[in-house]
Design goal:
With about 280 residues, this protein is of the alpha/beta class. It folds into two domains: about 170 residues, HUPs (Rossmann fold), CATH 3.40.50.620; about 80 residues, Pantoate-beta-alanine ligase, C-terminal domain (Pantoate--beta-alanine Ligase, Chain: A,domain 2). Helices cover about 35% and strands about 20% of the residues. The strands form two sheets. A six-stranded parallel β-sheet has the order 1-4-3-2-5-6, sandwiched between helices. A three-stranded antiparallel β-sheet has the order 7-8-9. Helix 9 packs antiparallel against helix 10. The structure holds adenosine-5'-triphosphate (ATP), pantoate (PAF) and beta-alanine (BAL). The site of pantoate has 10 residues, from strand 2 and helix 6.
Length: about 280
């Protein structure tokens, strides 16, 4: 049975009555197979699963899609019930921010200013602040985040380490459509032609990863493969797994962000840069 609570008092009462290890999956709702993979991992690795559903205003810029972001609570509850979630916490804005916008926020540091942070100023202050708040109120042993939002996952790991938050962060691989498109709640904004154009992101990443395996420049190959007649590139960059400078050899990460019409999408893949022999 999946219980639904909307207030922190109800959550605290339910949490106090919970025994065993607790895993949390934080979402903004509009649940899809990517979220299901997180819920499945939580179900497998924890005794009890809490899902949170909250479209966090703090992480949206003034010209972003906060107002039109899909809100599908009934369908989301059905997904959670089907996935064996024990408790859903779906607060409204005043419940999460009773004093209005918080004066004190988590500072993501220099990594928060790059890539997504450069295109979405204040984004990671908003993300890390709400993630920390949700960790405080749910008090999980484990928290699950998708690799699809790789910079977010990296910064959450870093926050937990730097601020001594007592939780283990688990990364979950990106779930894709059969043609390669990474699942995202924002995919539902795409018109059919845009849905095709959105493949430009995953195709570029695939080309980059294949090039790396052959000892060629992954980022350059991805740039060539990116179809800029169909999508407008924001960034495409090879980094090391911690989002530092690209490795001369060994594991790396290739990350892309692009606009398809008025929809901004992100994606990334692991790449392996072979050592020159
Ligand atoms: N395709 C996916 N595979 C694995 N995890 C995912 C996928 N899409 C989202 N997630 C993870 O689900 C969690 C909640 O993400 P969120 O609710 O923002 O969904 P989203 O699809 O990323 O939405 P948006 O389209 O707004 O970026 C995050 O940890 C995110 O990384
Ligand atoms: C982690 C998160 C739920 C914080 O609002 C959000 O950024 C998301 O859905 O990835
Ligand atoms: N999926 C990460 C949250 C966001 O894009 O706002």
């Amino acid at each position: 049975m999946t219980a639904l609570v909307h207030t922190r008092d109800e959550l605290a009462a339910a949490r106090s009555a919970t025994t065993g290890t607790v895993g949390v999956v934080m979402t903004m709702g509009a649940l899809h197979e990517g979220h299901r993979a997180l819920l499945r991992a939580a179900r497998e690795q924890a005794d009890r699963v809490i899902a949170t559903i909250f479209v966090n205003p703090l992480q949206f810029g003034p010209n972003e899609d906060f107002d039109r972001y899909p809100r599908t609570l009934d369908a989301d509850l059905a997904v959670c019930a089907d996935a064996g979630v024990d408790l859903v916490f779906a607060p409204d804005r005043p419940e999460m921010y009773p004093a209005g916008e918080p004066m004190v926020r988590v500072d993501p540091g220099p990594l928060g200013e790059r890539l997504e942070g450069a295109s979405r100023p204040g984004f990671f202050h908003g993300v890390l602040t709400v993630v920390l708040k949700l960790l405080q109120v749910t008090r999980p042993d484990l928290a699950f985040f998708g690799e699809k939002d790789y910079q977010q996952l990296t910064l959450v790991r870093r926050m937990v380490r730097d601020l001594d938050v007592p939780v283990r962060i688990v990364g979950v691989p990106t779930v894709r459509e059969p043609d390669g498109l990474a699942l995202s709640s924002r995919n539902r904004y795409l018109a059919p032609a845009e849905r095709q154009a959105a493949l430009s992101l995953s195709a570029a990443l695939r080309a980059g990863a294949e090039a790396a395996e052959l000892g060629r420049d992954a980022e350059a190959a991805a740039r060539v493969a990116f179809d800029s007649s169909r999508a407008k590139l924001d960034y495409l960059v090879l980094t090391d797994p911690d989002l530092g400078p690209p490795p001369a050899r060994g594991p790396g990460r290739l990350l892309v962000a692009a606009w398809v019409g008025s929809t901004r999408l992100i994606d990334n893949v692991a790449v392996e840069v072979p050592s020159a022999t």
